[in-house]
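User: quick one, sequence for these tokens?
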């Protein structure tokens, strides 16, 4: 369980509230709008109305005592910048800030945000890949150009093993798991495991290597 300070209760922030509550985390929610704060109250540990560009108000929250601070302010980038910068100065251990454009993403990184979340861009990339490539069922981007993809077994891999295909050396990829046609997940993938028609693979590697291997 984590203690989370969530600043900004727009649509993105409220969706975070519901998911964090579902996961059992302790959440302090902040917004300048009283109605939004009231809407969040049933799902959080505490909630307050306040302006997070006010340093004194932020100091009263004990920012450094939270495991994570999420700045989810969407429609006032100046406030998001000031808030992100201030909570970092106050010693917040991990700050996650929302961006709504590429420029915002760059600026938030420069002022010290540990992680940038850019929902529109990330969901757009996911949608484009998921629904235009017949062999891709899901994917998750990691850091430094790595990703995990869920892909169908290529026709020329069927009835062959990892050793037969020399996957690590030839493609620089790791097979993390195999999802059977009935949905069962097999994470005990051995070098002698044979691939079959109808299976899906969870593949870890550099995005460029995955796309090249599976001809995306």
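Assistant:
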């Amino acid at each position: 369980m984590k203690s989370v300070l969530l600043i900004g209760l727009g649509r993105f922030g409220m969706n975070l509230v519901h998911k964090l509550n579902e996961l059992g985390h302790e959440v302090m929610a902040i917004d300048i709008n009283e109605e939004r704060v009231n809407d969040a109250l049933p799902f959080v540990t505490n909630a307050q109305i306040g302006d997070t560009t006010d340093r004194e108000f932020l100091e009263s929250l004990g920012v450094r005592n939270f495991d994570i601070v999420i700045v989810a302010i969407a429609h006032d980038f100046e406030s998001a910048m000031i808030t992100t910068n201030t909570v970092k100065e106050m010693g917040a251990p991990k700050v996650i800030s929302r961006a709504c454009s590429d420029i915002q993403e760059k600026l938030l990184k420069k002022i010290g945000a540990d992680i940038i979340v850019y929902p529109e861009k990330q969901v757009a990339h996911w949608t484009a890949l998921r629904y235009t490539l017949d062999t891709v069922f899901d994917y998750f981007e990691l850091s430094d150009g790595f990703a995990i993809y869920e892909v169908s077994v290529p026709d020329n891999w069927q009835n062959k093993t990892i050793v037969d295909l020399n996957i690590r050396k030839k493609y620089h990829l790791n097979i993390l798991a195999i999802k059977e046609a009935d949905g069962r997940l097999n994470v005990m993938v051995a070098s002698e495991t044979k691939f079959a028609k109808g299976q899906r693979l969870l593949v870890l590697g550099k995005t460029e290597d995955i796309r090249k291997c599976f001809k995306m």
